[in-house]
Amino acid sequence: MSNDHSRVHVAVENEIADMADPTVSLLVHFGSEVRLERERLGMSRTELGKEACCGYSLVAKIEAGKRVPPLDYAEACDRTFAHSQGRFVRLWPLVLRHAFPPWFRQYAELEWTTAALRMFHPQLLPGIVQTEEYARAVLRSGRPTNLEELVTARIERQRILERDDPTRLWIILNESVLRNTVGSEAVMRKQLSSLQDLARTPPHVVQIIPDSDRHHGWGSPFGLLSFDEGADVTHVDGFPRGYLLAEADDVRTASNAYDLLTAMAAPPDESADMIASIVEDRYPC
Question: How do residues 152-163 score in pLDDT, each as one tens digit?
Fold first, then answer.
């Protein structure tokens, strides 16, 4: 990645959806390529669905450019279409980009290359650790017309935590995040079980700031992205959109704030037990 982050903030704020941009139609292009390869082999959509472990309906929607394919689907296409030579997996990151709002795309690209990601969220679990059900409940509240695309894109971002050389994730959450019901009690039980597993899995770290009568003073979600090469970048989440900051003073301010939040939170070794206690108290079976 380039060492020059100086124009990241401006680029994100000024980027607008341009329907003439060829990347806007990559979803349709991907689906068309799948259809051409499938028909060349004389396969039905049902047969391709079996190879990709999905149903006829999803194959049809992907071919029509109406759904973002998961990475597993792209991998199945490369396995099934012998002469693709990895084309569908190479196209997949560009196709995934289509699912994000224009202002979020540069952040998603930077996140994909991070060596370490530190995040603070005071109200909701960050998308990078959300279960599919939790993500759907959160995203549905905005009444989007492309809900399933947004859910797929959010869940696919989490692959950075599972690869051979995973991004090191450190998240700090207010205790209230775990007690506020999103979706349903069943959704929260599954979500907190997943968070508990993350808290127990090196190199990732989860810290929780216990509820108290005194507010710590930070109400806005923010994160710090670190790379193997180049300076750190800060991401501030907000309404109606988030933004990136690359200026050294802004990154230093965010880093200092994160250090203070780390000091206020309970030790990482206590997180899994705290989560279990909240589940028992708030979401019993």
Answer: 899 999 999 988
